[in-house]
Design brief:
The protein is α+β, with helices and mostly antiparallel strands and 186 residues long. The protein is 33% helix and 13% strand.
Length: 186
């Protein structure tokens, strides 16, 4: 099944506050925030290592006595970037680096979302996130909005509430404060 036609209704931006100027008003949408793979420098393998280890979490558990169903998932890895992947990335020349970094930044949307929401007006809701919601909480933790990617899927129908609650249920985003929506009786 070719799902490519859905891409025409998607937009992806850095979550910097200036992005608000690019967003439409009165556009219903389902949206998400992602950790931005916003890297730079002349040594891309080192930039990847720095990013991954900064976001990685190390934990040691005594597994004796724990049930088999426990699973822990963490972003990033504390292991160094190595092997063929490091060779490929290290071989990029200067003109390729900007394209590589910009493409990696866009492809942040391939990671698990940190927050999923819906709105009747994507621009107003984005601004609200800067003022009091997800991005404001991140700012309070010392994380600027540029460390996140804002992705939205514009809708011409009223499916955004259905899509949002379904995505929250399917994905369990780490920072959603409205997760109770999926467990609330009508």
């Amino acid at each position: 099944m070719d799902l490519s036609s859905f891409l025409s209704d998607c937009r992806c931006y850095s979550a910097d506050q200036s992005t608000a100027d690019l967003l439409p008003t009165d556009q219903p949408a389902v949206y998400a925030f992602y950790e931005a793979f916003r890297l730079s420098g002349d040594k891309p393998a080192d930039a990847i290592d720095d990013f991954a280890t900064k976001r990685a979490r190390n934990i040691q558990l005594d597994l004796s006595g724990l049930p088999d169903q426990i699973a822990l998932r963490f972003r990033g890895t504390s292991k160094r970037f190595k092997g063929k992947g490091k060779q490929y990335v290290s071989s990029l020349d200067q003109p390729q680096l900007e394209t590589f970094y910009n493409t990696l930044h866009f492809l942040s949307i391939l990671s698990e979302p940190l927050y999923v929401g819906e709105t009747e007006d994507v621009k107003t809701r984005f601004i609200a996130h800067h003022d009091k919601d997800f991005l404001q909480r991140m700012k309070a933790k010392g994380r600027p909005p540029g460390e996140f990617v804002f992705f939205y899927y514009g809708l011409s129908n009223q499916l955004h509430k259905c899509l949002e609650t379904s995505l929250i249920h399917l994905l369990s985003p780490a920072d959603n404060t409205i997760g109770s929506l999926i467990n609330t009786k009508p």
